[in-house]
Amino acid sequence: MKLVTWNCQGAFRRKYPALAALQPDLAVVQECESLERISWKQGNAPTHTFWYGEKPTRGVGIFSWTQTSFRVKEGFDTSIHYAIPVEVEAPIPFHVIAVWTMKHADWRLAYSGQAYRALGVYREFILSADTVILGDFNSNQRTAPRGRVGSHAVLAANLHTLGLISAYHFATGEKSGNETHPTFFHGRKTEQAGHIDYVFIPSRWIRRLKSVQVGNPGEWLAYSDHCPVMVEFVPKYPNRMV
């Protein structure tokens, strides 16, 4: 099973073949345009799709390029920008929260504050099944200003309490704030980089973790100012996803 998060920086209709080539079972795409704007005319269209956003040019897309299907939980909280709860219909079902955190009128609630709020709103959803939380969090250990509700450190601590760990940090052994593989490059410049995209997985999935990769900037900066984070697992049982 392969999970991917990637902020495509818009114009996904032109860029999707790069993601499709990875054949993810589930991909969360931030800054994705609405499905009505994507013709898939380059072929290799996804098998399952969902999109939500307040502007047709920018939102969150959720896609599968395999037989893995999913459904978005009805009545999700649209006041959180953005955290979308998803039920994945695999042989062993699990939950996903697709994240793209944004600014807020109250700066204290921006970015990691939105993700922190989502943990409270969706606590029962998270605890009711194995849950993966992945996306563009727009935050790391070094960026949180004082006074923010749910700083990155507080967010990470709450995720840990819920039994979730960062797949990247587990696989690399690196400490938060000292990542050697950035996921974001401001202005697509390698000298202005940071690690702000994450895949948080249940700690008991560690034994089936096959690989964790951040896309090569030399390849992905041609498409976006973000590189994808790709996490792959070996099956728990033959012919089963997780």
Automatic annotation (TrEMBL):
UniProt GO molecular function: catalytic activity
InterPro entries assigned to the protein according to its UniProt record, in alphabetical order: Endo/exonu/phosph_ase_sf (IPR036691), Endo/exonuclease/phosphatase (IPR005135)
Domain of life assignment: Bacteria
Domain Endonuclease/exonuclease/phosphatase residue range list: 4-226
Name of protein: Endonuclease/exonuclease/phosphatase domain-containing protein
Organism whose genome encodes this protein: Anaerolinea thermophila (strain DSM 14523 / JCM 11388 / NBRC 100420 / UNI-1)
